Amino acid sequence: DWTPDIFVETTVAELKAKLGNDKVVMGLSGGVDSSVAAMLIHKAIGKNLHCIFVDNGLLRKNEFASVLESYKHMGLNVKGVDASQRFYAALKGLTEPEQKRKAIGRAFIEVFDEEAHKIQDVKWLGQGTIYPDVIESVSVKGPSATIKSHHNVGGLPDKMKMKVVEPLNTLFKDEVRNVGRTLEIDPNILGRHPFPGPGLGIRILSEITAEKVRVLQEVDHIFVQGLKDHGLYDQVWQAGAMLTPIQAVGVMGDERTYENVVALRAVTSVDGMTADFCHLPYEFLGEISSEIINKVKGVNRVVYDISSKPPATIEWE
Ligand code: XMP
Question: Which residues is 251 bridged to in the sheet?
Answer without folding.
Answer: 256
